[in-house]
Amino acid sequence: MPVFVTGGTGYIGRSVVRALRNDAHVTRVLTRSDAAVSVAQGLGVEPVRGELRDLDTLRAEAAHADAIVFLAQDNAEDGPAAARAALEVLLDALPQGRTFIYTSGVWVYGSRGDAVIAEDAPLAPLDLVAWRPAHEQLVLAQQGRLRTIVIRPGVVYGDGGGLPGMMAEAARTGNLRIVGDGSNRWPTVRHDALAELYARAVAHREVHGIFNATRGASVPYGEIAHAASRAAGGSGEIERIPLEAAREMMGTFADALAVDLQIDSGRATRELGWEPHRPTLLEELSNTAVI
């Protein structure tokens, strides 16, 4: 089927596009630069030159798609507003009965300690993603006219990318510091395993709603940092910064690093048959050497 992807040349997006191609979907990817065009062509998919703010381009692509996968992130100050405008146009232009998949994240649950959080838990989003629940509801409200899905990934890792990859790189340059004492736990998912979930969500035309996307037990932040240090050739030593001081340095992102979450992603297994087998984050870091 024809699938239109926003954010398809990013870290997660590249894996999702590969998974869609493996299922023989005709995939078109929004590309905002010459470099992104080259990435799309290297993935064997058709680049569509434009960005989230090019609403006419989005409208034209949606009108001819059977499914849209929304992965794009706009980090500008007005990024959430631009993303909402893009969502409104895409949802309006996508023909009735088609599929729309929106990418959110587990940070919409906030920090929940020992509670194991499923998709029906009340939301308490971190300030960093306070706008996301409204975007989720905008998408989910179209259920019936469209088939709508929201995917909430955990911390994505694998092949040197994501936050864990950034930590390993920081350790390599001698600048690895963590927020708090590191006892808080991160729910995680490898990028290619996550991509399999997107492909299954596109293919299983009877499912809709919200799906958490994490695999295995949540991992203590401090253990990730120690492993990242060792992967970078260090001793595992890390520097700890109190949360309040970290907030002064990095704003609301500090609370994201300090989040303590345990996630139940069983719905994806039950309804989509999602059972990816990948190395855990700590296993991957233990077999990595950053040069």
Describe this structure in words.
With 291 residues, this protein is of the alpha/beta class. It has a domain of 199 residues: 3-Layer(aba) Sandwich (Rossmann fold). The protein contains 12 helices and 15 strands. It has a 7-stranded parallel β-sheet, with helices on both faces. A two-stranded parallel sheet has the order 6-15. Strand 4, helix 4 and strand 5 form a beta-alpha-beta unit. Helix 3 runs parallel beside helix 4. It starts with a strand and ends in a 5-residue tail after the last helix.
Produce a short descriptive summary.
Strands 3-2-1-4-5-7-12 form a seven-stranded parallel sheet, with helices on both faces. Strands 6-15 form a two-stranded parallel sheet. Strands 8-11 form a two-stranded parallel ribbon. About 40% of the residues lie in helices and about 20% in strands.
